[in-house]
Structure formats: C-alpha cells, structure tokens
Amino acid sequence: MFTKAYAKAHTNIALIKYWGKRDQERNLPAVGSISMTLADLWTETTVEFNPQLNTDRLLLNDLQDDQAEIRASQFLDLIRQHAKFSLHAQINSKNNFPTSAGLASSASGFAALALAATQAANIPMSSAELSALARQGSGSAPRSLFGGFVEMLKGERQDGQDSVAHQLYDEHHWPLNVVIAIVTKEAKPISSRAAMRLTTESSPYYSEWVRSSERDLEIARQAITNKDFSLLAEVAETSCLKMHAAAMTANPPCLYWNAITLNLIKETWDLRKKGIAAFFTIDAGPQVKIFCEPSATKCIQERISQIENIYRIQVTGIGPNPIIKKSV
Ligand code: PMV
Fold it and tell me: How far from 45 is each of 71, 292, 322, CA to CA, in Å?
C-alpha cells in the first residue's frame, strides 16, 4: 500500500571538499569528503504517490518550478525502477533558507526527497542504498542523511556500492558554529557538475588535488576526534583553497569568488591571528562560511558586518539526523 510520507533533512557544509567524479554516469566522487550538518537550515518534503496523477508534480517553496520538477521526476524514476511500479507523485518541498544561494539546498533537498519518497513507496532501504539513491540527485546529498560530522567515502567499486556516507560523530560531540556570509543573490555562473567536469578534464592541478585528499581526510578525522580546532582550521582551509585552485585553473576557468569573498578570507585570517578560533570554507559560489567556536560567534558577526556589500549574515550550529514520518 502506498502512503504519504514526510522527511526533514538539514543541509551540510563540507570541511574536506568533494570536487570531481570518478564516474560521471553513476555520479561517483573521485575523492571522499567530510562535512558538518547545519542545525538551522533544512528542507521539509512530503511525497504522496497518487494513481490519479499522470505526471509527477512538484511545488518548491509553494511555487511551480519546471526545472526542479524535471529533476525531481527523474529522481522518482529511480525509485519507480527499484520498486517496479509506475505511480506518479505529488511532491511538496520547502527550504527554510534561500534556495540556490550557495547554501547547499540540493544536499538537503535530495536527502529529504530520497527519505520521503522511499517511505511513501514503502521500500525499506539500507543506509548504503539510501546513500546510493541520494547521490544520484547530488553528490553532497548522502551527507545530509545524517546529523553531526559525516564522512562520504569515495569507494572503490565500479557499481558505487561502497561510495556511501556515514556518521563520524553526532551533533553533541563538538558543538561548533558557522557564520554564513551571503555576498550575492545571483545564481552561480557555472553549476558544480559542469565545473567539476572542466576541472577534471583540464586543470593541471587536478591529479594532485585527488592524490592529496586522502591525507586531508585523515587529518580532519583526527582533528574532529580530538576536537583540535587549529588542526581542523588548517586542513579545512587547505582543502577549500586546493579545490578552488584546481577549479580556477580549468580551461575555461571556473572562478566562484568575488572581491567580498577575498575580503572575508582576509578578515578570517586576521581574526585568527588575534586568537579568535575561526576558519573559512567556500563552496561553488562566492558565499563564505566561517566556522568557529561558539564563544567567538558574536565577535565574528560584528567584524564581518562592517564589510561592505554583505547581503545577509546567518549563524547556525551543528544539526541533527533527519526526521521521517509516515502518514496514511
Ligand atoms: O553536491 P554537488 O554536486 O552540488 O557538489 C558539491 C560540491 C561542493 O559543495 C563545492 C563541495 C562539497 O563537498 O559540498
């Protein structure tokens, strides 16, 4: 019997970045990654399979969005193939933060959709199967299947079954904060998928990026286990800068930063020199996420709010596992 299901999944920000694919078609990452799930940014999704529908319908933040509907419908095709049925669904999905503003809405979006749709279709899935499913939507989505600190393994197998996410520590292990500086509302100039492909095909730094990632993951695991802020700061910034250096040196170059991004990098280094426990990371966009010890949050907020042209600042802590509910 088909039912209606609801899932709430939180976004995540990578401390050790995923950039590049070892298999385009299966969307398998060339490198592992480690992230922190965010407490206050999430997606809530309900899915209801309905015999009266002849196409999938999506409402994203209460609005119709043709592009997003196509992606969601292709994603549901994977579930229909797996479950061997042909029903279509009504999907209602809401982000409690700006969609497509470089805040990883695709991670929480596809994690919530994977959880709600498999519940609604009554298909029990192992955690590895859910990872594989979420990964087809977005490479960073499996990490949003867990709270706390999460590692996504690149895996070795061709079928990708060992490319799965798992929780390193839950949200009570080491409560860090993130100060997110949104510096533009504009959509990113190039999608991460397209930029990863260009980087893989043309950056002279790509092979070194892949080679050195194993060591970065090892150091980050150790830093998180020992709650060693300086070590995590160093390795997370290194991973972010290497990812962007590889992307920038693709042909044509993929440059996501703007002048405000650079000001925020300098400001974070300045704060750290003064003994404030803070480090930055940047994804495929100009927004800067400053991780910090909770006691440093206010000072960081005050300092960066003096930088011109920052459009919005949002603070959040470390977030929990998703919630899934079934309703008849
Ligand atoms: O999940 P995707 O395909 O949008 O890729 C995410 C890539 C980065 O956000 C830049 C890094 C990461 O690990 O989240």
Answer: 15, 30, 11
Q: What is the pLDDT of residues 235-245, one digit of tens each?
A: 999 999 999 99
Q: For residue 229, give the 3-state DSSP assignment.
A: helix
What's the burial of 63, exposed, middle or buried (CB within 10 Å: 0-12/13-18/19+)?
exposed
Beta carbons within 10 angstroms of residue 141's beta carbon: 31
pLDDT tens readout for residues 302-317 = 999 999 889 899 999 9
**DSSP bridge pairs for 43:** 9, 95
Three-class SS of residue 83?
helix
Q: Is 193 in the pocket of ligand 1 (CB under 6 A)?
A: yes
Instruction: Report CA-CA distances (Å) from 151 to 21, 154, 239, 299, 320.
Output: 16, 10, 15, 30, 15
- 107 alpha carbon to ligand 1 midpoint, in Å? 8
Q: Are 12 and 289 in contact (CB under 8 A)?
A: no
140 lines ligand 1 (CB under 6 A): yes
**Interval between CA 192 and ligand 1 midpoint (Å):** 7
Counting ligand 1 atoms within 8 A of each CB, the residue from 17, 150, 193, 287 with the most, and so the one to mutate, is: 17
